[in-house]
Each structure stands twice: as C-alpha cells, then as structure tokens.
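Structure tokens please, single chain.
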Amino acid sequence: MTKMVWGGRFSQETDALVNMLNASIGFDRRLYVYDIEGSVAHCRMLAKQNIISDEDASAMVVALGEIKRELDRGGFSSDDDYEDIHTLVEKALVDKVGALGKKIHTGRSRNDQVALDTRLYVRDVIHQVMGSIRDCRETILRLAEDHLDVLMPGYTHLQRAQPVLLSHHLMAYYEMLTRDYTRFEESQARVNVMPLGSAALAGATFDLDREMVAESLGFDQISRNSMDAVSDRDFVLDFLYNASMVMMHLSRLSEELVLWSTQEFGFIVISDAFSTGSSIMPQKKNPDLPELIRGKTGRAYGHLMGLLTTMKGLPLSYNKDMQEDKEALFDSADTVQMCLRVMGSLLGAVTFKTDTLKAATEKGYLVATDLADYLVGKGLTFREAHEIVGKMVVFAMGKNQELHELSLKEMKTYNRQIGEDVYAWLDPQLTVGRRNIPGGTGPDAVKNEIEMAKQQLKTEGGGRRTEGR
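Here you go.
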C-alpha cells in the first residue's frame, strides 16, 4: 500500500492486518460523487477567501471533474492503493496537478469530510426512497379503485371478524406507506445540515465561509457545534429506523399475500412471472418474492440495532467505530428500494378471486355485530344485545347454519322485538354499506378515501434527486 496521508507521525510501516481492518474503500467508494462535489465547493470557497489562488482553485476543480468522469467509468479499480474514498480522490488529484493537489485538504479533516459526504448521500437516497414509496402507493390506490365493489372478510386474531371492502383493506397499506413517506420527509431537515468547517472536532483556524459552502451544496443550515457535527450519526439512524418501518409494513403486506395465495385461503393468484417452483415437487408454485421481502425485514432491523449499539457508548467526538455506519446505511438503502420496487410490480401481478372473497364473508357469523346493533336500535343496551347474539351464534353453530339461515321464529325466541327487517342486517353487502362514516368501510367512505389519496399524491413533492446533481 502507498504511504498513508497520516504517515508522517509513524516510523514503522503499517501492518497488513491493520490495513485490512481499517480500510473502508471497499464500501465507501460509492460516495465518490459526493466527495468530489464537496471538494469542489470547498476548493471554490478557499479561493473566495483568498486562502488559495483563483488559478489554483480552477486547476483543481477541472482535475476533480476529470477524476469524477474516470470514476464514473470504473477507473481507479485497485482499491489496495487507497484507505478510503477521500484519500483516493486526494491522491488522484495530486497525480493530476502535482503538489498543488495537497492544498485541497486545507481547513478540513476527514472527520467533517465523511460527515458531509454521508449527509449528501442520505439526502439523495431519501428522495429516491420517497419516490419508490410514492410509486408503491399509486399501485395500491389503483388496485383499490379497481376493486371498489369487492367484499372480503376483515380479520382480527387471524379469525374472520366482519365484512369489509377489499379496497378498504388495501387502503390500510396506503396509509402505512403514507406515514413512511412523511417520516422520510420530516427527517430531511435533520439531514440537511452542513458540517464542513468543523475539521477534526474543534473547527478550523482558517477564515472559512461555511455559509457559502452550504449554499452551493444546497444545505439549509450549517452545524452549530463542531464536536457534535463530526460525531453525529443520528441522521443515519433516522434513515435506518425509517427504512425499518417501511420494511415492517411491506412485511405485513407480504404475509397477507403469502396467506391469501394458499389453497386454504384461495383469495389471490400471483402470476407465474412473479412466482417460483420447486426442484422436487412439480406441482408447486411458491410466493418467494413476498417471502423474501418478509425475510429482508430482519436484515433492516439488524442494521438499525447494530448502529444503535455501536453508538451507545461512544465518547465525544469522532471514533473509528463510526465507520460501521456505512455498510448498514448502504445495504438498508439498497434493500428498501429493491423491496419497494418489487412490491409495486408484484401487486400489479396479483389477481383477486372475487367470488371466493365474497363467499368467505358469508361463513363464520361475520354479521353478528350488525345483529347486535339491530337490537340496540330496538331499545336494548349493547351489552344486552351482545349477550343475546352470542347465544344465537351458539344455537346456529349447533345447527351448522349461519345467522341469516335461522328462521324468524327461532330468532324471536331470543328477543320478541326481532322482526322481518332483521334479515337486511344479516346481508354482508348491506352491513358494509352501513359503515359510511369517515374512515369506515362503507362504499361512499372508501370512495372518499380514494379521492383524498389522489389529491394527496398530486400535492406531494418528493421527486427523485439524481446523485451528484
């Protein structure tokens, strides 16, 4: 390995094992766009402050542009020559412009440099994830709108509970992903703080124009405490938590897709293009994609818990432990974006078996609550009605009948106020139609929910940003 940028203090060559454990170039290479972007802004500011000449700054900016283009093409592939992406860029600059390139590090440390690069990366990837969340929400919204008249059982404890509209069920996931979108949106303010100028921990001795750098890089503000700026990874933890929440919601949806695709449920068919088979059982068609999304959720949780554990005992300010944030961050970003893209495409490849879904609402006494409400309308308290209907359910179970199959005479033995009008309360379609309060599963309420979602998507920002801009 070539001489380290910090090698002046050392009289012995660094042991190879140290290099193996210490080097981060194997994973932080993907930050090169941001490292160069930050270096260009820093270089121009140094010239503006007369710390370096305009001519030197121009030469370095041109060279940094050449280095970016070479890295875009996959250049500098021998990672063994570099400790991290910062030294790669700096050494490449020195190779191009000679000793002049060594001026690029004036007034900054790798501590505030890596904090800057990571914030720039997180800021961009947040926009990308928000775009993927939005795409997935739009797919769910289309499915809900296409299935407005489809009934299905709603569940509690994985037991059939009450009839609901399939659209209402789907829109529950729209709401979850909307909260995820909002979480990422809210975290941007904490990400968009410019740390450069904090140097190693105490700030720089040069007259740096930090506001100029912040403005040129699109930051809303500069950091207010240099020690916090170089040791803060809260914004990475925010991202990991937000990603974990997205994955949890995708995992819940995945679990339902797995269940619904079984012969036992038979609610959906996943297209062959989004299914896999068995190496030994010719008849099998497996829902591997939702299973993998469900499995990768644990991966996202692990990254969050890992970095929380890393950070919990670190004194101020920078410690090398914090290098462990990168692989967790990069992998979580890749994982959540891939899973969102897959889920959006997978949902578009699902066929709902509407007859099976409706038939499932007609078995299991799903209208029992409506029958209790009917009795309340006759003057009973809800607790009285609840007890009566419970006994009616036991009676119907003994006859292997549903509530609507009981005769009026049989029902009147439980309460004489029950009349012929009771049967309108025992039709799943009609029971759903009664729940048109805001947020309910009634058709009008769900249509309104879908319209509000459409307007919400129209008014949102959250477009994707391009890396490096």
